[in-house]
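WP5 quarterly update. Target: Tryptophan 2-monooxygenase. Source organism: Flavobacterium fontis. Length: 453 aa.
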Amino acid sequence: MQRRKFIKDTLSGLTILLVAPSHLSSSCNKDDDDKPNGKTVVVIGAGISGLAAAKKLKENGFNVIVLEAQDKVGGRLRTNRTLGVAFDEGASWIHGTNGNPITNLAQQAGMNTAITNDESLVCYDIGGVLISDTQFDHAEAKLETILSTLKNNGSATQSFETIFNSMYPTYTNDRLWKFLLSTYITFDLGDLDKVSSILYDKGEEFSGEERISTNGYDTIPNYLANDLNIQLNQRVSKIDYSNSKTKITHNGTTTEADYVLVTVPLGVLKSGNIQFIPALPKAKQTAIQKIGMSCVNKFLLTWSTAFWDDEQYIGYTPEIKDKFNYFVNVKKFHPNVNALMTFAYADYARLTETMTDAQITDEIMLHLRDIYGNSIPNPTNLVRTKWQTNENSFGAYSFTQVGTKMHYFDDLAEEINDKLFFAGEHTHIDYFSTAHGAYLSGIREADKIIDLI
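Structure tokens (predicted):
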């Protein structure tokens, strides 16, 4: 599921990306100096970026308080185990294991993983018609060519969809092309009518295997949270950094700090639910407004017996784009579990949040029955996500929409008056929209604060 890797490999060939050792040093390795230094840091948000920073700051002698709005740590690294199998509602994969800080962190945290093979795919058209490997490979190769040249015809004011449709009008209503654009572009980036036609290829990738978590991605935040002072169910409403000490208002109480690290998702910053005094600098406000926030929702369904192909992925090409067109065969890495995981993206993902579980199940089963016949049974259970209306995220992850400039990611990462700091995947210019980008941003900000002492 390394979709951006597909884009990047298309444009520049496979490159092994190395990150400076200082950035990859685990926040779980204690530094030499862990004596109290008399300084207090309040970290807002107990996602992977906030926890990584808090861990490193604590090990360097800071008094660290983590304020988390939810009832558990992890942020968008959430795992639902109600059906007896770990269903990761947010991040599921380690995208490229070579040099990726999540690789070692996952091992330390006890997160089990399995290799997933993008080539293990079978794809069906409407009517259960199998799309041949030749046809699929030809279209995929054509997409590679298009991705390598489309940005040359793009502009800062036009979307990927606008340019693509003008250049390749015969593909606009082709169901296979809808599938490819949906699962390769929209899934990884965001709404095609909002994705920038000149920045769709931005963002770096690590090389190596694609590994999916099998016992839950939340093992990582749970591990990082060990021995930290974390206050749950604390929703921050105001940050006043106008004086020597910064005052953080949460649940009607106030906490003072020498430094504050804000790690809430971009969607929360966009919502304006946190008041900053004084208002954030214009450059940061512009970045918050201009960078996009995508929506991807995930759905896990279980059955008593399996009826589907013994492949890692099952594709389907419906008329409606972004709608339950891609299925992960969970049985491939959980042999005793009969389950499929599917997705909805962009506007259709947002639409699903207005639908009942029964309506969702009916729509998914229409696709599966078109592939495998009307005799297949209904699922025994369904669990799902609703990221767009989740007040703790208001979306899935950031992306380069029309109007985005790459320096906006750096603008989001810029500290203010050496008192107010920012981390999260949306603040990492190279690895935005990823768990590893979020982690690295937390280490980056911890280092900034440490350097002030």
